[in-house]
From TrEMBL:
Membrane-spanning intervals of the chain: 12-32
Name this polypeptide is given: DUF4446 family protein
InterPro entries: DUF4446 (IPR027981)
Keywords: Membrane, Transmembrane, Transmembrane helix
A Pfam family recorded for this sequence: DUF4446
Lineage of origin: Bacteria, Bacillati, Bacillota, Negativicutes, Veillonellales
Superkingdom of origin organism: Bacteria
Length: 174
């Protein structure tokens, strides 16, 4: 069937076709290498910040900062918890009422002053002013209740302290 064919010529033609194909592939590889180089340049340009530092390095620094901030935040929360625990034992609620203890004395010189901590423990200090003498009384407050009898002004001062929101409003009785 293939009688009379010059096999040498066929091999030469096949080798030539393979050579041309190889040459085309080498040219195509060169084109792809050139395109890859341009793409790499664009990638490197894109992956730099304004100072020329790579975005990866910048992200690495930012993540390290976030970890540091996380540690700082945990320390702040722990400190805040400690402060809140101490604050419950500090006086922070105030009630104050000025009044006239006697009808013939003016200017509201008598007062009831209540100071409580975060657990509503504290004291009520009251001063009764008279023309000839002045007396001061202190009564303990435990869990928002006085262990002794209280005057109306002292009760009002205690109620003011229990409802204290941070601003002191002086109540004067006429």
């Amino acid at each position: 069937m293939f009688y009379g064919l010059d096999w040498q010529l066929i091999y030469l033609a096949a080798a030539g076709a393979v050579g041309v194909l190889l040459l085309l592939l080498i040219i195509y590889i060169g084109i792809l290498t050139h395109r890859m180089g341009k793409l790499k340049e664009k990638y490197e340009f894109f992956m730099q910040d304004e100072t020329g530092k790579s975005v990866e390095a910048k992200l690495h620094e930012d993540v390290a900062r976030l970890h540091d901030l996380q540690d700082s935040l945990e320390l702040i929360h722990k400190t805040q918890k400690d402060i809140m625990a101490v604050q419950n034992h500090c006086f922070r609620k105030i009630g104050f009422v000025k009044y006239n203890a006697f009808d013939n004395i003016g200017n509201n010189l008598s007062f009831a002053f209540t100071v409580l901590d975060g657990k509503n423990d504290g004291f009520c200090l009251s001063s009764v002013y008279g023309r000839n003498e002045s007396r001061i009384f202190a009564k303990p407050i435990v869990d928002g209740k006085c262990l002794y009898g209280m005057s109306e002004e002292e009760k009002e001062s205690l109620d003011n302290a229990l409802q204290y929101t941070g601003t002191l409003d002086t109540v004067q009785k006429d």
